[in-house]
Specification:
Chain lengths: ~240, ~400
């Protein structure tokens, strides 16, 4: 494992107009890791991911991906560089078929044969998507949509995958499945994962390291295991 | 059956009273100041009787008392559907094409004139479909590019004497440039704001056409535009070409038909291309499309310019047919009409748009006898259509149409 972080945020500030959502976020993600960001509603978790992707512009601070400064890189260039986000609430394309959704994940690629193989691979990984390949995305169930969103992001061939609240609005058994898939992607496809979750328990069990965000600032950074046993965290985020 | 009636009678009564309130000012108040009730009540009672019969049929149908009629009817409808799906698409296409080809032979002058109108609007509708149906941007100033195309041909032809075939690509080009100029600042907006801004720019272009006296001759318009000219091979005295003006409507019809065929093929190819996929992703979810690596701004601008190109080409044909252009032809009402055609026919569906155009051009022609009530009937038809077929006459097919075979 190389010592250079695949993603590094240095004192990043951003916000929406006069509302400052991030007030100096610094974090590091090493290649091959699963890193979890946990925190309460409105703490700035999703904004962190949106700022990394450039949808929300960083006002201050530096974002390095793979050693390159990406503050000024346009959002649509990032998938070509191997950085892709599964946005909050899945945001699949509801009136396009499962197949077309996957094709859009491979939008920046032009190797048609390989794309077809990769689509087949995603059907192997998510058999339910294969069954529903010509069904409209909006007609899938919540869990299937989340799988589609992840499969779509994998079609970009990412090195680093940003996952925003993959458990949102899903039944516990489906959440379990999704997290198994995340662990598998990390191991088998060798994709580094930065995970944002409200479900702190699950996220920290899956992750190797964790960050705690409160009102736009990182308040704690530790190994996931020690966060899980930290009494403060247990009280604030694990409901004890 | 009684129960069904109990469910709806309240709404029905309120609806009919509402209609009475609407009818009385229209029919009861006269220009000379007198107020009558006689006519309103008579008309209203006719409508009441008519709708009551409809209501009773509806109630009986809901109460299953009409099985002896509805069963055979649904069987027939099912059979028709079976027959219509039994023929592959190409049969339908060739039947339509053959009909379109022989149409002017039996239609007469008036019929051909209406048909040319339909063809030009199909071209416009297909262009707007790229903007609204595929890329999902509500454009209310679309007709402006039609005007730009028409004026480009008019000015170049009258002032510089350039031929139609030289001006056609130039019309497309100027419309495209106009589309880019308007689109560049406006496409940063989304949804309602975009609709308002495009409406504004559409009007601005019309007002420019109206006021730029030196170039466009203002509200008087430009007269004396030459029709399409072609070279026909003549075999008398050896082989020569003879120049020939397409003045007869029948001949012009075939040129317009050719234009529509090219436009249909172009839109079909765009729809199933990588670009089409990008447009649809923008329509579905712009942020997600951006995250997937679609350069949303460029593709939106491309959609806008592409729509403008279709409009510009249609505009050049329009100018060549009318031999006269004036800003009055490019008002907001026209934009709204084209939008209605696209929405009525079914956004994103080519056969739907063709049917929508035919419905909206042909219906007012058929109802011409009703004179001032024409628009009323038109409005009522639109409302009924939207209630019963909200996705359009022929909704765009999605499920299963783009399987792997087609995608590959």
């Amino acid at each position: 494992m190389s010592l250079q972080p695949i993603l590094e945020l240095k004192n990043v500030h951003s916000g929406y107009g006069s509302i400052k959502a991030l007030k100096g976020i610094s974090l590091k993600v090493m290649p091959g890791e699963i890193v979890a960001i946990i925190g309460a509603n409105g703490a700035g978790k999703s904004t962190t991911l949106m700022t990394i992707c450039g949808i929300v512009k960083a006002e201050k601070g530096e974002i390095y991906y793979d050693g390159k400064l990406i503050n000024k890189v346009l959002p649509e260039k990032l998938p070509t560089m191997g950085l892709c986000q599964v946005p909050e609430g899945r945001r699949i394309f509801p009136r396009l078929t499962v197949m077309e959704n996957l094709r859009l994940g491979a939008f920046h690629r032009d190797d048609t044969d390989q794309i077809m193989k990769d689509i087949q691979n995603s059907y192997d990984m998510f058999p339910i998507l294969g069954e529903r390949r010509s069904q409209q995305g909006g007609t899938l169930s919540g869990g299937e949509q989340q799988m589609l969103a992840i499969a779509r992001a994998l079609m970009t061939k990412p090195k680093l995958l940003l996952l925003d609240e993959p458990s949102l609005g899903l039944a516990p058994i489906i959440v379990q499945q999704i997290f198994e898939i995340i662990a598998r992607i990390n191991k088998e496809e060798d994709v580094t994962i930065l995970l944002v979750e409200q479900n702190a328990n699950l996220a920290l069990q899956a992750a190797s390291r964790g960050y705690v965000v409160e009102t736009g600032e990182i308040t704690l950074e530790d190994e996931a295991q020690s966060l899980l046993t930290n009494p403060k965290i247990r009280e604030a985020y694990l409901g004890e | 059956m009684i129960q069904e009636f109990k469910k709806v009678w309240k709404q029905y009564t309120i609806g009919m009273l509402w209609l009475l309130g609407l009818l009385w000012p229209l029919l009861g108040i006269h220009p000379d100041g007198t107020i009558t009730f006689q006519k309103t009540v008579t008309v209203w009672s006719y409508i009441l009787a008519g709708t009551f019969v409809c209501l009773m049929i509806y109630v009986m149908k809901a109460g299953d008392s009409l099985k002896f009629i509805s069963n055979p009817v649904s069987r027939v409808a099912g059979n028709i559907k079976k027959v219509s799906t039994a023929f592959p698409t190409w049969v339908w296409i060739s039947v339509t094409l053959v009909f379109a080809l022989i149409y002017p032979l039996f239609a007469g002058r008036y019929g051909t004139d209406v048909a040319i109108n339909v063809l030009l609007y199909i071209c416009l509708g297909l262009g707007l479909n790229v903007v609204v149906g595929l890329a999902g941007m509500l454009d209310l100033g679309y007709i402006a590019f039609y005007g730009v195309g028409a004026y480009t041909y008019a000015v170049l032809n009258v002032t510089y004497g350039l031929a139609f075939w030289v001006c056609l690509p130039l019309s497309a080009l100027t419309a495209c440039i106009a589309g880019c100029i308007v689109g560049y600042p406006t496409l940063r907006m989304r949804g309602d704001y975009l609709a308002i801004v495009t409406l504004g720019f559409g009007e601005i272009i019309r007002i420019i056409l109206n006021n730029w006296m030196t170039l466009t001759n203002g509200p008087n318009g430009i007269l004396g535009i030459k029709p399409i000219g072609i070279f026909l091979p003549i075999f008398e005295n050896g082989f020569t070409f003879e120049h020939f003006w397409v003045k007869k409507l029948q001949f012009f019809y075939y040129f317009a038909l050719a234009l529509v065929i090219v436009a249909v093929i172009a839109v079909q190819r765009l729809n199933f291309s990588r670009v089409g996929r990008a447009w649809e992703s923008i329509r579905e979810d712009e942020t997600a499309a951006e995250l997937m690596g679609v350069n949303t701004f460029i593709y939106k601008l491309l959609a806008y310019a592409m729509g403008a190109v279709f409009a510009g080409i249609a505009g050049a044909f329009f100018a060549a047919r009318m031999k006269f252009v004036s800003p009055e032809s490019f008002t907001f009402l026209e934009s709204a009409m084209v939008l209605c055609m696209v929405v009525l026919g079914g956004m994103g569906s080519i056969p739907g748009i063709i049917l929508g155009v035919i419905a909206l051009i042909a219906l007012p022609e058929i109802f011409r006898e009703f004179q001032s009530y024409r628009m009323l009937i038109f409005g009522a038809t639109m409302i009924i259509m939207m209630l019963f077929r909200p996705a359009g006459l022929i909704p765009a097919k999605r499920m299963g149409t783009r399987s792997e075979e087609k995608e590959g």
